[in-house]
Amino acid sequence: MAQPDIIDESGDKYKYGFITDIEADTAPAGLNADIIRLISQKKEEPEWLLEWRLKAFEFWQTMSEPHWAKLAYDKIDYQALHYYSAPKQKVAPKSLQEVDKSLLETYDKLGIPLKEQEALAGVVAVDAVFDSVSVATTYRAKLAEKGIIFCSISEAIKNHPDLVKKYLGSVVPYTDNFFACLNSAVFTDGSFVYIPKGVKSPMELSTYFRINAKNTGQFERTLIVAEDDSYVSYLEGCTAPQRDENQLHAAIVEIVVMNNAEVKYSTVQNWYPGDKDGKGGVYNFVTKRAACRGANSKISWTQVETGSAVTWKYPSCVLQGDNSVGEFYSVAITNNRQQADTGTKMIHIGKNTTSKIISKGISAGFSNQTYRGLVKVTPQADNARNYSQCDSLLIGANCGSHTVPYVENRNRNAVLEHEATTSKISDEQLFYCKQRGISEEEAVSLIVNGFCKDVMQHLPMEFAIEAAKLINISLEGSVG
Amino acid sequence: MTNLVPNIAYDYAELAKVSGIELPTPKTEAWKYTRLRDLLDCPYTLCTPSSATGPELPLKADVIHISNGRLVSALPQVAGAEITVIDHVEEKTHHPFAQMNALYLTQGLQITIRRKLSRPLVLNYHMSPNGENGFYHWRNIINCEKDSSAAIIEQFTYEGEVKSCYLANLVNDINIQAGASLQHYKYQNEAFKANHVALHEITIAADGKYESFCLQKGANIARNETEISLNGEGAEAVVNAAYMMNGWATLDTTTNVYHYQPHTKSSQLVKGVVGGTAKGVFQGRIHIAPNAVCTSGTQLHKAMVLSDDAEIDVKPELEIFADDVKCSHGAASGEIDKEQLFYMRSRGIGEEEAKTLLIDAYVTDVINHITDSSVREWFKSLI
Fold first, then answer.
1. Contacts of A404 in chain B (CB under 8 A)
2. Which of A182, A275, B142, B244 is the 20 to 30 A CA-CA neighbour of B66?
3. What is the predicted ipTM?
4. Which residues of chain A does B293 touch, with a Cβ-Cβ cutoff of 8 Å?
5. What range defines the domain where residue B61 resides?
6. Contact B33/B283 with Cβ under 8 angstroms?
7. Contacts of A410 in chain B (CB under 8 A)
8. Pick from B246, B234, B52, B220: which is nearest to B130 by CA?
9. Residues B262-297: tens digit of each pLDDT
10. Shortest CB distance from B334 goes to which of A403, A404, A416?
């Protein structure tokens, strides 16, 4: 059978590529202690946080950008970026009606109309982040009844400083890595979730991130704390407008899970991947980490990565509590000139801890993708158990797919398994579908969706539908 | 070769530094699991010559005895092969230990295989007691000519104090021409404080075949690194290994297999058993170049951990730039299977004996892949 041609125009078709014209309040380009003071001042932050930011900045200056990942991108000029940008609005909106109309239209185009959200979804509370300031938070009252705090991190700093002070940086310290350190110094907003003891969140919490103002690095910071016996499912989804300059995004997600608590964190990442020649697109350098501090705690990461020109992302689980469970389900799709270096870290510290990694990577066009993961079992982690499976699918002869798993076992009772395969869509499967009247493109999408099924079934309903569509859009034009 | 003064203790790291060679540090990705500090800690003098020879192999073979890094006796006449002594080489790679090896070469052999050899060629390396705190650099340049076939066995043994400390730095440059095949077996049983760094650089032309098996049982730090370039269509490589260690050693098996051409094939099977405070390391990489379609590469590492302080570090890597390939890798580690143990004990086999049997079977599984039956039996007798 002839090799399918790799001609792709998906970059030009990017569905969510548009720029909202709102007057933005932007800080001058560049990064120095004064800019950090300005951010802190704009956000009316307490003194301790400013000091923490400045300490992070000082440390960041001693660090150098990591280059161990299989990624090639233009050098980032950190002094050319704007580190603060907020839509100009004098008074904070009290209801959706007060929100800037063009902002709401942006969300309409994105397919998450906030106004309809209440009636339509009914169960999903959305904390929409537009550039750096949260503009609307819904369902807060309903959540407040249960004692759940779900707000932007700036609000949390104002209203719940003790909680933020206790947990901020406790999972990802500012010394952790270059991008996390940068984020710690300049983060502008993000979400904060606190689930009190014994509370199961009555709905799925969701945040839509969106990069907007030109040349603005986005430095989101999310902190989720689940107290004893609590449960929450959190959704994060992203789209970004189309533009030529590369945009830097260095986010941090920190999750703390206490005794018997469970947190499910799902992401659909669909930022602008650049056009078919690799021009533009988002640079996505994310540090995500969950600490299972309590016994019997559980964290589950599910991600569908289809966007961004460059992805550098390793959602990790630190399994400290006895019997704690860490899970990582990932589908990553790269097309055109996209590059993704993604995976997970499972650190087994507590006894009887288990972890599971299911990673599905699909490369098409001229893209390159790497799974990079670490499974580490410390000497005290008796009876630790890990199962890892990393499958890669190659579509076309010009893409690359790489697997770099690290397994470090220092406990004899640990049972660790790792499996990985790389192959292309088999001609037989394609032939079978085509023979039954299914077009080649449809057949590929069918096979790819089947390939990803193990991961997709862990996504919440809302995301599962969107994600399946995304997979098809992402692979458009990669065959035939 | 650059001359080294006998009887002078050289700090190996320092020697590398003044020679403009950068030895790996714990931060060097390819060496992060190998405790190099232990290797570089003690100063070494150039090995003094010795005439002692290592134990004979229970095989009909042509034997070359090498003691303390030097030839002991005259070279045997091998029909179909040409063997000469070399005392200087040039290193083309950037491998730091191979560069050191070339720069300060003690001695080496140029082996040309012209046709099918009737029996295996054994390189019997031996360390005598007067090699204590010494180092030697040995290199073989092996050229397997078109359609030739040979089996080469390397054995590393020592004599005297089990704790003697020395450094053996070995390089094999192997070139397998079209249609030729080479079976390469290695048994490493150095002293428990010895350090052993070996690099095998192999290029294989169209329809060439390379089959290797390495059993590591000794040394303090041992690294057996294999780098294979499959340069012609139909080239095939089998890289199997096993390691068993109960002491404090670090046994490192590193492989890099590069598939440069279509229709090439490689497979790796490595099994390890570690007890005491030993550390087993496996780093394997399969690289498939953009045009190398219809290739297959497999890799499997399995380790058994027998004690609380033992450690296993694994990094099986796939680097694939072509779509029509079949590649897989797997890694597993765990303790001895309790159910199997129970099954045997319930049949009246003592715990120790049952364990021995299970470990034996575990490692024999790899040995069974050796095509030469007499070599297979020999390896079985070693575990």
1. 315, 317-318
2. B244
3. 0.87
4. 397
5. 12-335
6. yes
7. 310-311
8. B52
9. 999 999 999 999 999 999 999 999 999 998 999 999
10. A416
